[in-house]
Design goal:
about 80 residues; alpha+beta; Alpha-Beta Plaits; four-stranded antiparallel sheet; 4 strands; about 25% helix; globular
């Protein structure tokens, strides 16, 4: 069963666009969008299981230049597709 998570990212001052661009297209990352609010980027992460998602967060997102802090929200239920 594949897993999905939303990762809310705080970026270093002035580096949100660059960090989001660096994340886009990396394995396991479906989207990385710059947003307004207390976080700078929201990334959508997919993996084969929870461990794969966690490894993507730890090894890909948190090591990306400009990423200061992350909060990961694992999806436990989704609504119907439209």
């Amino acid at each position: 069963m594949s897993r999905q998570a939303y990762v809310l990212i705080q970026a270093e001052m002035g580096l949100a666009e660059a960090a989001a661009k660096a994340l886009r297209g990396k394995p396991g990352i479906r989207a990385a969008d710059v947003v307004t609010g207390p976080h700078d980027i929201i990334a959508v992460v997919h993996g084969a299981d929870s461990d794969a998602v966690a490894k993507t967060v730890l090894n890909v997102i948190q090591t990306t230049k400009g990423v200061k802090n992350t909060s990961t929200y694992m999806v436990v239920s989704t609504g119907p597709s439209e």
